[in-house]
What does this fold into?
Amino acid sequence: MERPGGRIFLLIVMEQPYDRHMDDRAIFHAKLAGRVLFAPARQTLAKARTAVSERNGPSARAVHEFRKSMKRWRALLRLLEPLIGAEAKQLRIEARDAARSLAHARDGQACLDALDDLAKAGSDLPRMAEQAIRRQIQSMRRKAEAGIADKPARTRLVATVDKAAAAIERWTHEAFAFDDVAEQLVESYYRARKARPGDWEKAEPESLHELRRRVVVHRYQMEVIQPLCPKFGKNWIARAQNLRQRLGKCQDLEVLLKHTAPGASLSPWSDVLKAPIEQRLRKHRLAAGRLSDRLLSDKRKAFRRRLKAACRATKRKALTSL
It folds into this structure.
């Protein structure tokens, strides 16, 4: 369907019976909206629920899966928040708080990932010191995971997921204009672009973390329109994922560095860890800067034109495939 002025609607009517009087364009957008907006969200929330429903409490893998699922869900909520309103914002805040409750459990895995990265780079950590550091990190991780293994904590996380899943079912009968959704994609891109540091070598960890957060949101939101522009979407998501991973390595190294501070769990090894961490950080930051130039070079209007041109180019082909 179209509004006056040609704005295409995505009709969320997947649960409604087929109406033979609907024209092909309306049927196409009904199928598309159900597929790209809410079907993936249902799958994401199902994964999150499984992760925190483990009988013996969430493992490191499950914690990572839950936090990743919450990031994907929050990205969709940011996309729809201007269209749905206060309920979407409240659900986004609840998902954020649920993910943050597992942050300490994630710190241990981040430290291990950073240590693996240092080993991959050929750092000269003494073998005995590296083994002792790993044992200490694993102990730290087990203690953090024990704090979220109790049944009340898991029950709260499951309740958060179930509330989100119920909201999706209420939204399946809403209508959204594609132009409005596309405009939110443009805004998420622009927020990421604005968050780039002026000097990558001297950038504060907080600013890189904020950039990574915005790139993650943009990367997940771009998945929403990938069925409309498969080639463009796939290439763009791959670029965003590469930047996300580089910034993630920076973040892991910063977490490891934080734990070498006086009085922290890894402070006995600060002398052998600090220099290799700072050297590796510099390399990742410069690489992230180059990836950022590839992904975030467009201005707002240029990205909007690129996005809409890519969608128009494949709309007719997508229509015939549904």
Q: What stands out?
A: Confidence is low (pLDDT under 50) at residues 1-28, 318-322. Residues 230-258 form the longest helix (29 residues).
